[in-house]
């Protein structure tokens, strides 16, 4: 079981979702704002997602509830109906926080940190800082916000990101692939959807971008540029 926002079909790019310019994949510098997925894009959380799913199944079992599925995010989605959303959220977030502390920074995260001076110190950027060579950037993740912030701090990505634009699963009312979380990140960066870029690694990310009316770029394409 893959318990992050990827499924087996995520290894194949969905037709009709990815919008690419004639000159190649979108470039972050061409946009007013850039939003990044976290896990699998900027960092890799050290999370055993099968163990997370088991922990959530235990939440159901402890209350003598028959789970509707064994898939992690479907279990979370059903938690409201079963009246156990806080307990399920807590079980997932506990693993995510630990995984964020033990996470590995990925190549795109390396480049983002180096470009912002995050590896060498410096002043924190804001959405209105014109001195930044990279557009103001944020995060839209299916992971809980606290885990996102732990990962950002752990890997010194804070200089490259606008703090208020770090949006996790629990930051707004809904999460990916519903567009609300991505739209919230774009808005907090002071941009509009048509002038923003979302960078991710999964089909869920691509679908989220399409639903939000935001241009999408695969992290693999940016790394190949």
Describe the protein in words.
α7 (203-212) links the parallel β6 and β7. This protein has 8 helices and 7 strands, in the order ββαααβαβαβαβαβα. The protein is globular. The longest helix has 17 residues, at 85-101. Helices cover 39% and strands 10% of the residues. The protein is an alpha/beta fold and 225 residues long. The chain starts with 32 loop residues before the first strand and ends with a helix.
Question: How would the blueprint of this fold be written?
Answer:
Blueprint: E1 33-36, E2 43-44, H1 49-62, H2 72-82, H3 85-101, E3 104-105, H4 107-116, E4 137-140, H5 145-154, E5 166-167, H6 180-188, E6 196-200, H7 203-212, E7 215-218, H8 219-224
Helix pairs in contact: 1-3, 2-3, 3-5
CATH architecture call of the largest domain: 3-Layer(aba) Sandwich
| Number of H/I helices | 8
Main sheet makeup: 5 strands, parallel
How much of the sequence lies in strands comes to 5-15%
Structural class: alpha/beta
Q: Describe the strand arrangement of the main beta sheet, using strand numbers.
A: 5-4-1-6-7
Number of domains: 2
Q: What is the CATH C-level name of the largest domain? A: Alpha Beta
- Output the CATH homologous superfamily of the largest domain: HAD superfamily/HAD-like
According to CATH, the fold-level topology of the largest domain is Rossmann fold
The coarse silhouette is globular
């Amino acid at each position: 079981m893959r318990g992050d926002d990827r499924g087996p079909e995520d290894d194949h790019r969905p037709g009709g979702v990815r919008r690419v310019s004639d000159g190649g994949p979108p470039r972050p510098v061409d946009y007013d704002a850039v939003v990044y997925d976290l896990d699998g894009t900027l960092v890799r959380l050290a999370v055993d997602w099968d163990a997370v799913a088991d922990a959530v199944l235990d939440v159901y079992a402890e209350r003598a509830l028959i789970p509707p599925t064994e898939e992690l995010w479907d279990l979370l989605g059903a938690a409201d109906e079963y009246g156990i959303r806080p307990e399920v959220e807590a079980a997932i977030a506990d693993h995510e926080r630990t995984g964020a502390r033990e996470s590995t920074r990925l190549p795109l995260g390396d480049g983002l940190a180096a470009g912002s001076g995050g590896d060498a110190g410096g002043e924190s950027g804001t959405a209105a800082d014109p001195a930044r060579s990279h557009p103001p950037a944020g995060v839209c993740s299916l992971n809980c916000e606290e885990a996102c912030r732990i990962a950002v701090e752990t890997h010194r990505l804070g200089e490259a990101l606008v703090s208020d634009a770090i949006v996790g699963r629990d930051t707004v009312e809904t999460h990916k692939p519903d567009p609300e979380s991505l739209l919230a990140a774009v808005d907090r960066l002071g941009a509009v959807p048509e002038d923003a870029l979302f960078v991710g690694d999964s089909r869920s990310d691509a679908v989220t971008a399409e639903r939000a009316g935001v241009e999408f770029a695969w992290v693999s394409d940016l790394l190949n540029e």
